[in-house]
Amino acid sequence: MSVRLRLTILYIGLLACTLALFGSFLYVLFYINMQTEMDESIAVRTQDIVDLFNANPSQFTENIETYSRGDYYIQFIDREGRVELKTLNMGTGVIPVNAENLASIAEKPPQFETIRVGSSTYRLRTTALIDVRTQRVTGFLQVARSLDNLENTMSRLRQVLVISIGVSLSVAAVLGSIVARRAFRPIDRMTRTARRIGVSGNLSERVSHRNQQDELGRLAATFNEMLDRLQDAYTRQDEALSAQRRFVADASHELRTPLTTIRGNLDLLTHFPDLPLEDRGEALSDALSESQRMSRLVDDLLFLARADAGQKLVKTPQDVAPIVRDVVRQARRLSQGQTIEVEVIDGVMVLGSADHIRQLLLILIDNALKYTPPTGTIRVSMRVMGDPPVLGIAVADTGPGIDSEKLPHIFDRFYRADVSRNGSGAGLGLAIAKWLTEQHGGAIEAASEQGRGSIFTVWLPALSQDEQDSMQEPAQRPIAAVAS
Length: 484
Ligand code: ADP
Known about the structure:
- By secondary structure, this protein is α+β, with helices and mostly antiparallel strands.
- Helix content is about 55%, strand content about 20%.
- The strands form 4 sheets. A 5-stranded antiparallel β-sheet has the order 2-1-5-4-3. It has a 5-stranded mixed β-sheet with strand order 8-10-11-13-12. Strands 6-14 form a two-stranded antiparallel sheet.
- A hairpin with a 6-residue loop joins β4 and β5.
- The site of adenosine-5'-diphosphate (ADP) has 21 residues, from α8 and α10.
C-alpha cells in the first residue's frame, strides 16, 4: 500500500472519529436538553395541579381536565395504588402503577421515570398528595407526557448526522487524496529523476522544487547536494583515473628510452665481439649511465606511487638552518663550477621530517645546478615573515629561466619545460618537491625571468616560541620516520 493511500486512510479515519465524537456529543446534548425541557414542563404542570388540590379539594375533580391540555396525561391513585381519577385523553388506558414504590415516593422528592406503555414511551412524574391539615398522604398524582415526538426528532437528527458525516467523509476522502497526490508530486519527481540517473548515469541532472523552505524543499536540496557530491566524487575519480593512466603511460615511455639504449649497446657488444676497445668502453659506459638514470627514475616513480597511496610523513620539530647548511655542503660537491651562496637564520623551527626537507631542498638545488652555467651563482637563503610565522627557503639561480607560459606547469608530473636542455631529467623532481612541501603544510612557488634566472621558494609554517615550548617533549624523539 502506498504511503499516499495510507496517509489518506489515516486522515479519513481520524476525521471519521472526530465527526462521530462530535455527532454523538451533539446528539446526547440535544437529547438531554429536550428531556430536561419536558421534565420541567411536567414539574410545572404537577405543581399547578398540587396547588389546585391544596386550594380547593372539592372542585378539584371538575377542573382537572383543563390541565390535560397540551398532551399531559394525569392520573390520581389512592394510597394502595388504585386508580381513582384520570383525564379523558387517556381513553381506556391507565398509567401502570408500581404499588411497592409508592411508600418510598412519599418520603423523597418526586422523581422522573421513563415508562413504556404498548409501543409508546412516556416521561412520568409521581408526586405524593398530602392533606395540609392532617399532613397525611392521601394519594398520588401522576403526570405523564408522551416521548414519541422527542423520539421522532431524535431519529431525524440521527439521520441528518449520519448522512452529513457520510457526505463529509466522502468529500474529505476525495479532497484528501487530491491533496496527498499534489503533496507527493515532488517525491514522484525525485523518484523519476533518481531512476533516470540510475539508468543513464548522468549525474548533472537536478531535482527542482519551488518552496525551498518546506520539508520537501529541504529533501530536494539534500538530494541535490548528494548529487553534487556524487558528481564531484565521480569527476575526481575520473580525473584521478586519467592522471593514473597518464602516469603509467608517461612512466612506460620514460623507462623505454634508457632500456632501448641499454639494449642497443648490449646488442652491439654481443654482435660485434671484435669491436675496438674504445668503442666497447663507450658502449658499456652508455649502458651504465642509462641504467643509473633508469634506477633514479624508478626511485622517483616509487616515491610518487607511495605518495599516491596515502603515505604520510612523521613530523617532529626541526631546526631548519643545520639542514640547509648540510644540503648546501652536499650540493657543493656536485657543483661544476657554479658558486653556491648560503644565508641561514639559526633557531627557526618547523614541524617536519628532516630527511624529507633535505630531499626537497636537494631537488631544488640540484635543478639549479643542472640549469645554471658553471660561471653562474646559486643562492640559498632563509627568511621569516608574518604572525603566525612562516619560513621561506629560497633557491635562486642565474640560469636561463623558464618561459612564463610553461611556468604554471613545471610542478606537473613528467613536465619538462625545456627538453633540449633537460638532459637526464624525467620531469618528476618538482612534482615530488611539491608533494613534500604540501605534506609539511606549506606551499612552493616559482618565479622566473628568461635569461636572468629562477627563484624557487618553499614556504613552511614556522613554530612560534610557545609551540616550540609545548613540543619540547616530542622533540626528544627520533628526528624523522616514514609511515607507510
Ligand atoms: P627534471 O627532472 O626534468 O628537472 P623537474 O620536475 O625537476 O624535472 O623540473 C621540471 C622542469 O622545470 C624541468 O624540465 C625544467 O625545464 C624546468 N626547471 C626546473 N628547475 C629549473 C631551473 N632552476 N631553471 C630552469 N628551468 C628549470
